[in-house]
Design goal:
2 domains, 22 helices, 13 strands, binds protoporphyrin IX containing FE, single chain, globular, Cytochrome p450, two-stranded antiparallel ribbon, alpha+beta, binds 2-acetamido-2-deoxy-beta-D-glucopyranose, five-stranded mixed beta sheet
């Protein structure tokens, strides 16, 4: 056994050694450039952009952390893994100030925690562009908005903004109300629910399908789906093929879509390829339908795909439209950007609510005040959505603590000045600039001493006794959950509308959600603490940040 553990420790150490030797020059060069900035510096031996490392980082580090004494506590174990920002919260910035530099062999990562500086950073799109090389994986289905730069990005962005309009948001609202109603019916029909995450994922995917591509699917639970013949079930095939692609995106990009087509590959790869082909065919069919409808001049309800086809056919005359490949690229990006983000945030939110019954009461007080006894089909997006501020606050508060996607910038080929804490610092060319989302959104200076506690009411203010409640972000620039500035998330309102509609349906009729007690001996308080523990200590990055095992805490829906 001894030689085995020696090997287990030695192998990663040797690997590290090789990497360090190979990249010593890079580290030295980057260290010199980092020192010139005049901010505190920490050094890690492996680039966070190293795809091999990303796959093994946590496993290797959990061994290194077990080294005796202080050997296991250093910048390597603290910063050299994907997702450390959320674990670390504001502590690094508290130690080092509002800007510090993580030196890596490939690039320097400059972490910024000053809300004013972040405001300026996110608005200077030309000075601090998105590092598209990080998101290159999104090109599997064609070029895309997320990866485009310069003029190509402007065209795509214009068309995207045209797609994400209020008419589309109204569709999101209606579809989410219907789906949430069916989901609640299913949840409340069962003694306990351990599929909340899967069901919320289904809901988010179906809303996307309807508002994105005009295809409406009924809510169905996993059980219902299994009972059906899966071959003829379009919703299930769409969902599963997308899921397979998202889960294996890194593999697909690494091997290439041509390679995974070989028939002699292992079954797992063939299945991935089948999912890829299915999804591509699905998109092609949607596209052809839309083009035909456009050619015939049919005016039906709008959706993202339809707007994209129309905008590009109309713009094509003056040479500004999207190509067919770009449309596929974007559809995939909308699916990618809009699916995991929303589904993961919804799951965190439901579990937080289960742990805080008083917030459920606070929520349903608002819902009852706003929609009263009107049946759901009379709820109106334009008049009801803006009044459901507490529902919106629940989403913000969840994303404040558990940001699904990080926004990331870089300086490109020119050094850029940035005002941080009253001092202008020169950020060298070719540096990553990372808004410290894990820190700025939890820093007690901006959020108060209870900054690590989930408390949605911090987003609600009331100026007088009779005054209406207002939604408000306490410190401008201290919340970057949907990013900000010209390259923020175009799906922000889409996700907010979807979330608020879902909350309003779930918590209107005096339904309450609780964690199921483990055994007769567990008190409700202990069960809630167990849920909070699951959220805090059992979350991690899969593709994005998510709860790893929500099914370990089944939920119970009860009428009050
Ligand atoms: C809770 C839900 C969501 C969150 C927290 C979120 C967050 C973000 C963030 C932080 C970015 C910027 C990333 C960067 O700077 O590199 C982004 C970009 C983007 N998001 Fe979202 N998003 C959400 C939902 C959605 C939805 C529902 C859609 C579409 C249906 C969507 C579509 C996009 C697209 C297309 C981009 C790229 C924009 C560009 O490059 O100009 N997002 N999102
Ligand atoms: C997470 O784990 C730490 C260390 O075991 C513990 O102190 C903390 O209370 C846990 N968090 C929650 C919310 O239970
Ligand atoms: C339209 C567009 O800008 N597409 C870009 C997508 O991303 C790749 C890089 O991965 C670029 O080469 C394309 O130009």
């Amino acid at each position: 056994m001894a030689w085995f553990s020696v090997l287990l420790v030695a192998a990663p150490l040797m690997l590290m050694g090789v990497l360090v030797v190979h990249t010593a020059c890079g580290l030295l060069r980057n260290y010199a450039s980092a020192r010139a900035i005049g901010a505190p510096v920490r050094i890690i031996p492996i680039s966070p952009l190293n795809p091999f490392w990303v796959l093994v980082d946590r496993k290797v580090l959990s061994f290194v952390r077990r080294l005796p004494g202080r050997l296991g506590e250093n910048s390597f174990t603290r910063y050299n893994w994907r997702g450390w920002e959320v674990k670390d919260r504001y502590h690094s910035h508290q130690e080092m100030g509002d800007i510090w530099v993580l030196v890596t062999p490939l690039k320097n990562w400059i972490y910024v925690n000053d809300p004013e500086a972040l405001n300026s950073l996110l608005r200077r799109e030309n000075d601090f562009p998105r590092p598209v090389f990080v998101t290159e994986i999104l090109n599997v289905f064609g070029p895309n908005i997320s990866n485009a730069e310069g003029k190509a990005w402007k065209t795509q962005r214009k068309i995207a903004l045209h797609c994400f309009n209020e008419q589309n948001n109204a569709i999101v609202w209606d579809e989410a109300l219907t789906l949430a109603g069916d989901m609640l019916k299913y949840w409340t029909s069962k003694p306990s629910v351990d599929t909340a995450a899967t069901d919320l994922r289904t809901l988010s995917l179906h809303v996307l399908s309807r508002a994105g591509f005009g295809k409406s699917f009924k809510f169905e639970s996993q059980e219902e789906r299994k009972a059906q013949d899966s071959a003829g079930n379009t919703a299930a095939n769409y969902k599963e093929s997308l899921q397979t692609i998202l889960e294996n995106l890194i593999l697909i990009v690494g091997l290439g879509t041509n390679f995974i087509a070989y028939p002699w590959l292992p079954k797992k790869l063939r299945d991935i390829h089948a999912a890829y082909v299915y999804f591509r065919t699905y998109m092609t069919n949607l596209y052809e339908e839309e083009k035909a409808a456009f050619a015939e001049g049919q005016t039906t309800e709008s959706n993202l795909m339809r707007s994209m086809v129309r905008a590009s056919q109309a713009d094509a005359k003056d040479g500004g439209g999207l190509t067919e490949a770009e449309i596929y690229g974007n559809i995939f990006v909308f699916n990618f950007a809009g699916h995991d983000t929303t589904a993961n945030s919804f799951t965190f939110a439901i579990y937080f609510l289960a742990a805080y019954p008083e917030v459920q009461d606070w929520l349903s007080e608002e819902i009852n005040r706003v929609v009263g006894h009107r049946p759901v089909d009379e709820w109106d997006y334009r008049s009801d959505f803006p009044r459901l501020k507490r529902c919106l606050a629940v989403l913000y508060e969840t994303i404040r603590l558990y940001v699904p996607v990080a926004t990331l910038k870089w300086t490109g080929d020119k050094a850029q000045p940035l005002l941080v804490g009253g001092k202008v610092l020169m950020l060298p060319a070719n540096s990553m600039v990372a808004p410290s989302y894990g820190s700025v959104q939890t820093d007690p200076r901006f959020w108060g001493p209870d900054s690590l506690i989930w408390n949605p009411s911090r987003f609600i203010t009331k100026s007088g006794v009779d005054a209406d409640e207002e939604f408000c972000i306490p410190v401008r620039g201290a919340f970057v959950g949907w990013s900000d500035g010209p390259r923020d998330c175009p799906g922000r309102k889409f996700s907010q509308v979807e979330f608020v509609a879902t909350m309003a349906v779930l918590f209107r009729d005096n339904w309450r959600v609780e964690p199921m007690l483990k055994d007769m001996g567990e008190s409700p308080g202990a069960a809630r603490r167990r849920v909070l523990d699951l959220i805090e200590n059992d979350s991690g990055s899969v593709l994005l940040l998510q709860m790893l095992h929500p099914e370990r805490a089944p939920l119970v829906w009860k009428k009050r």
